[in-house]
Amino acid sequence: MRIVDLIEKKRDGHALTTEEINFIIEGYVAKDIPDYQISALLMAIYFNGMTTAESTALTMAMLHSGETIDLSAIKGIKVDKHSTGGVGDKTTLVLGPLVAAAGAKVAKLSGRGLGHTGGTLDKLESIPGLSIAIDPKDFSKQVNDIGIAVAGQTANVCPADKLLYALRDVTATVPSIPLIASSIMSKKLASGSDVIVLDVKIGDGAFMKTLEDAKELSKVMVGIGTEVGKEVVAFITDMNQPLGFTVGNKLEVVEALETLQGKGPEDLTTLCVEIGSYMVYSAKITDSIDAARELVQQQITNKHAHDKQLEFLQAQGGKLPDLEQFIHVKDIVSVHADTGGYIASIKALDIGLAAMKLGAGRATKEDTIDPDVGIKLHKKVGDYVDQGDVLASIYTNTSSIDDIIAEVQQAYTISKDHVDKTPIIYEIITKEDI
Ligand code: URA
Fold it and tell me: Which residue range or ranges hold the Pyrimidine nucleoside phosphorylase C-terminal domain (predicted)?
C-alpha cells in the first residue's frame, strides 16, 4: 500500500477501507508517514467527508493507537458524558454527583481547558487539596464505594488523536464533521464507559454554529457508538450565551454547588436534570425517562446530590472552605448597561475571551490559570434592564481592566423590543434518528 495512492483515492471522492485507514494511522504514529502527506489527506477529508463506515474505522484506529481504560472492576453500568465545550460549561461538576446520588456509576476522565476558561480538571483543582491524579485501582474503588471519581486523562490515551489534532490545528482542518466525530468518540470509547451522553453545543461560543451541522455531527457520533455496541445519545444545546451566570474556575465551582442545592440558574439546572435523566435511565436504574427525571429531581430537593458532591470532593482530598471565604480577588468591578431594554444576546465567545484575559483560561498550554478570577453575569437573554443596571461583575486581580470592561459591555446587545428567553435544549438525537 502507498500513502500517495490513498490520498489520491480520497481526493477523488472515494471511500477508504478499514485496512487502508489502519495503514494510515499506524504509519503516522510510527512516523513512517510524514506530516505533509497526512496534511494533504486531512484536506481531502475536509472537502470530501467520510462515510459512517470510514468514520467508525478512523475512530477505532485512533482508539487502538494507545491505552484503553479498563473499568471492569467497577460493578454496574458505567455512564459518561462529554460536552463539545463552551463558555461557563460546568455541567460535569453538577451532573457527576447528581447521577451518582441517583445510583449511577460515574468513572470520568477529564481534560484541562485551552482557550476561554479552564476545563473540568482546572475547576476541580481550584479546590484546595483536591487531586485528580488517582491510581487506577483507587479510581475503580472510589467509583464502587461512592459512585463517582474524576481523574486526569493519561498521556497514552489515543496518541494518534493528539498528533492529528495538532496537525489539524495548523492546517485549517479542525472544522470537519467526520474528523471531530472520530476525535471525540475515540477518546470517549477509550475511557471505557457503557453509556455515553454527548452534549453538542451550538452557537457563537461553540464549534458548531448551526443546528444542521450539530445534527449531522450528533448523528455521526451516535452512529459510531452504536456500531461498536455502546449506548450513545446526543443532546444539541445552546451556546449562544454563556451557560449559567458564571465564567471562571472557582466561580463555577460555587455555582455548581448552588445548583445541586436547587439554587442554580434555570438553564444549567434544566440541562443537568434532562441529561442526568438520560444517564440514569440508560444505566437501567429506572424503566422510563419520566421516572428517571423524578428520581434526579428528588436528589436535588432532598440534598443528596449536594452531599454526594461534598463526599466526592473529600474523597479526592478537596478541602472546601466556607464558600464566603473561597474566592479572593483584589477587586470586583461592575459593568453597567449603557441603555435600557431587553437583553437580545450575550456573545459567549467574547465573554470567554474576556475571562481568559483576566487569567481564568489559558492562551497557550504553558500559561497558568488564576482560579479566583472570572465574570459573573447578572442578566441573561430575555431579561429587562434599565440604563445603569449592573449587567455583570468582573472578579479581577489586575488593576487596569478598562478594555475588559468594554469587551463585556459590548458582548451584550440590548433591544427596545421584547425578547423571549432562548431554549437550552434544541434536540435529542438517539440511535432511532440515524
Ligand atoms: N473536541 C475534540 O476532542 N476533538 C475535535 O476534533 C474537536 C473538539
Answer: 342-415
Other residues' Cβ atoms within 10 Å of the Cβ of residue 367: 12
CB burial string 289-304: b at 16+ within 10 A, e below = eeebbebbbebbeeeb
> What ranges do the domains of the chain cover?
3-63, 78-155+165-321+426-433, 327-415
Indicate whether residue 183 lines ligand 1 (CB < 6 A).
yes
Q: pLDDT per residue over 217-269, tens digit each?
A: 999 999 999 999 999 999 999 999 999 999 999 999 999 999 999 999 999 99
Residue 261 has what DSSP assignment? T
| Ligand 1 centroid from CA 234, angstroms | 15
What's phi and psi for 377, nearest 5 deg? -80, 145
* Residues 115, 184: Cα–Cα separation, whole Å: 18
Going by CATH, does the domain composed of 327-415 fall within 3.10.20.30?
A: no
CB-based burial, 129-141: b 16+ in 10 Å, e otherwise = ebebebeeeebbb
3-class state of residue 39 by DSSP: helix
Alpha carbon distance 332, 326 (integer Å) = 14
Contact 204, 348 (CB under 8 A): yes
What DSSP state is assigned to residue 424? S
Question: Quick one: CATH architecture of 3-63?
Answer: Up-down Bundle (1.20)
Please tell me the distance between residue 224's alpha carbon and the centre of ligand 1 in angstroms.
15
Which residues make Cβ contacts (< 8 Å) with residue 342, sequence separation at least 6? 382, 383, 384, 385, 414, 415, 416, 417, 418, 419
Q: Tell the residue nearest (CA) to atom 5 of ligand 1.
A: 180
Q: Which three cell numbers stand for residue 275?
A: 441529561
217 Cβ closer than 6 Å to some ligand 1 atom: no
Residues 6+ apart with CB under 8 A from 406: none
Q: Out of 3.40.1030.10, 3.40.50.10860, 3.30.420.140, 3.50.50.60, which CATH number does the structure's domain 78-155+165-321+426-433 have?
A: 3.40.1030.10
Helix (H, G, I), strand (E, B) or coil at 46: helix
59 lines ligand 1 (CB under 6 A): no
Q: Which three cell numbers mark 269?
A: 439546572
The arrangement of strands across the sheet holding 331-336 comes to 246-247, 374-377, 390-396, 331-336
- Catalytic positions: 82, 161, 168, 183, 187
- Kindly state the cell numbers that stand for 41: 489527506
